[in-house]
């Protein structure tokens, strides 16, 4: 029969990689925790309306990237393409929005995109959202928190912070008119996507990767000139706070975010180490979203980081962990030996004398078990044969370094094992 393969763009995370995933997840979670953020665990499936209403009908995500299907009762459902909408939905539904409300979430997101390095159809994000605070000190907090995450991961020198303000919806509307008026004069020279966006979502054109379009934009009116006073002042305060905190930033006047719901602060952390998929984390303010989703008018701001890209970056910088091997392999020949070993191994697990104990299973001769012990990568083998059982003893064999073995009374095992592991620790 033919073998069944995983769906294109939906990757298995194999054992050799999963160590780094766990390190990444626990590091980010610990920093969020230390800043007073609480975790929300959200469903992967939401009603389609949640996303069309929040992300906006004319965005890439809603236009062409969502996994949408009808449930058996005819209701339209969607695999979540991002986490903010669900997070805000849950915060409203469960009355979590007291001020301040600091939340985070983690898990898979789904977008029908062209799979390539750093871009998948099922990918993973960790994101945080703060609801109820309108002032730029919280914008700064999120960025300072992220700077700490990069520092703990050893990524500080590989990522750059870009920030911008896209202003209030009023100032954006005025800018939009000016931008469209300008681009209309050179409509024919724009790339195809940008021509389409000219009518639907012209701000996204600023984000275009097309060099000719980018060159045309050099002569375009600047978003910064259209900012309202409040947005301008908030942006200045954010820059000042980042300076005080010692977080380096770069003003990218063309930075806009793909989704409709953003206003004022937008930011991205980018790297030049991953080719085209260089944005590892993106975020911004969304003061209208809570109301748009049926809650009381509440400001909000958040970010989401792309875990696949961060894993790629760790590898690129040679910061990936070596794959894990056993510390101790337990060899037993015969039922009586297996019985004798069982209790001892339990005690070793209780006392924490060894990190990773692999107990042989599946029978076989002493020789074949010792081969498996070698192949396991363990540094120590614990051996129970007839003699050991009869003598209430165990043989401890060093599989690396100077080698050698000794048979000792069970009472000395815990200590002897700790010493042996410390000696062979490389
Ligand atoms: P891009 O411009 O790369 O498509 P985006 O603007 O669509 O990104 P966001 O919706 O802001 O991305 O998501 C936040 C982060 O999630 C991105 O910066 C990126 O690191 C990651 N991300 C987004 N889409 C994917 C994907 N298809 N595969 C892997 N990571 C992704
Ligand atoms: Mg995208």
UniProtKB/TrEMBL annotation:
Checking CDD domains in the record gives:
HisRS-like_core, HisRS_anticodon
Quaternary structure, from the entry:
Homodimer.
Please name the Gene3D superfamilies in this protein's record: Anticodon-binding domain (3.40.50.800), Bira Bifunctional Protein, Domain 2 (3.30.930.10)
Assigned keywords, A-Z: Aminoacyl-tRNA synthetase, ATP-binding, Cytoplasm, Ligase, Nucleotide-binding, Protein biosynthesis
Query: Where's it found, cell-wise?
Result: Cytoplasm
The record's family statement is: Belongs to the class-II aminoacyl-tRNA synthetase family.
Q: Which residues form the Aminoacyl-transfer RNA synthetases class-II family profile domain?
A: 1-322
The EC number(s) given in the record are 6.1.1.21
MF terms from GO for this chain are: ATP binding; histidine-tRNA ligase activity
Which Pfam family, an example, fits this chain?
Answer: tRNA-synt_His
Name of the protein described by the UniProt record:
Histidine--tRNA ligase
InterPro entries, per this entry?
aa-tRNA-synth_II, aa-tRNA-synth_II/BPL/LPL, Anticodon-bd, Anticodon-bd_dom_sf, His-tRNA-ligase, HisRS-like_core, HisRS/HisZ, HisRS_anticodon
Q: Which reaction does it catalyse?
A: tRNA(His) + L-histidine + ATP = L-histidyl-tRNA(His) + AMP + diphosphate + H(+)
UniProt binding sites for L-histidine:
82-84, 111, 125, 129, 257, 261-262
**PANTHER family xrefs:** HISTIDINE--TRNA LIGASE, MITOCHONDRIAL-RELATED, HISTIDYL-TRNA SYNTHETASE
Q: What is its main location?
A: cytoplasm
Gene, per the UniProt record: hisS
Q: Name one GO biological process term.
A: histidyl-tRNA aminoacylation
Gene Ontology CC, one term: cytoplasm
């Amino acid at each position: 029969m033919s073998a069944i393969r995983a769906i294109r763009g939906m990757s298995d995370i194999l054992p050799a990689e999963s160590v780094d995933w766990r390190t990444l997840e626990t590091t980010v979670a610990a920093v969020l925790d230390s800043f007073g953020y609480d975790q929300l665990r959200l469903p992967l499936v939401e009603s389609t309306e949640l996303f069309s209403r929040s992300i906006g009908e004319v965005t890439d995500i809603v236009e062409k990237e969502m996994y949408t299907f009808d449930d058996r009762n005819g209701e339209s459902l969607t695999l979540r393409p991002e986490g903010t909408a669900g997070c805000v939905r849950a915060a409203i539904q469960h009355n979590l929005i007291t001020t301040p409300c600091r939340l985070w979430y983690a898990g898979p997101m789904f977008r029908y995109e062209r799979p390539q390095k750093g871009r998948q159809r099922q990918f993973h994000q960790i994101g945080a959202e703060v609801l109820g605070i309108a002032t730029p000190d919280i914008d700064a907090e999120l960025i300072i928190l992220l700077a700490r995450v990069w520092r703990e991961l050893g990524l500080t020198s590989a990522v750059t912070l870009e920030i911008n303000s896209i202003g209030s919806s009023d100032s954006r509307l005025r800018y939009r008119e000016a931008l469209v008026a300008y681009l209309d004069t050179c409509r024919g020279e724009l790339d195809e996507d940008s021509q389409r966006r000219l009518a639907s979502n012209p701000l996204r054109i600023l984000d275009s990767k097309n060099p000719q379009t980018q060159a045309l934009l050099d002569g375009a009116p600047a978003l910064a000139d259209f900012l309202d006073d409040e947005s301008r002042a908030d942006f200045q305060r954010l820059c000042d706070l980042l300076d005080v905190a010692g977080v380096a930033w770069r003003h990218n006047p063309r930075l806009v975010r793909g989704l409709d719901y953003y206003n004022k602060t937008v930011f991205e952390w980018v790297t030049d180490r991953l080719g085209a998929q260089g944005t590892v984390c993106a975020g911004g303010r969304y003061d209208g979203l809570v109301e748009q989703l049926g809650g009381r008018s509440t400001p909000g701001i958040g970010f989401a980081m792309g875990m696949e890209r961060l894993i790629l970056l760790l590898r690129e910088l040679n910061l990936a962990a070596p794959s894990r091997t056993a510390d101790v392999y337990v060899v037993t020949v015969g039922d009586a030996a297996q019985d004798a070993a069982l209790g001892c191994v339990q005690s070793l697990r209780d006392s924490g004398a060894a990190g990773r104990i692999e107990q042989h299973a599946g029978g076989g001769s002493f020789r074949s078990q010792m081969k498996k012990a070698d192949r396991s990568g363990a540094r120590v083998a614990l051996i129970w044969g007839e003699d050991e059982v009869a003598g209430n003893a165990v043989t401890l064999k060093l599989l690396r370094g100077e080698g050698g073995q000794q048979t000792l009374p069970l009472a000395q095992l815990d200590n002897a094992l700790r010493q042996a592991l410390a000696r062979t620790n490389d």
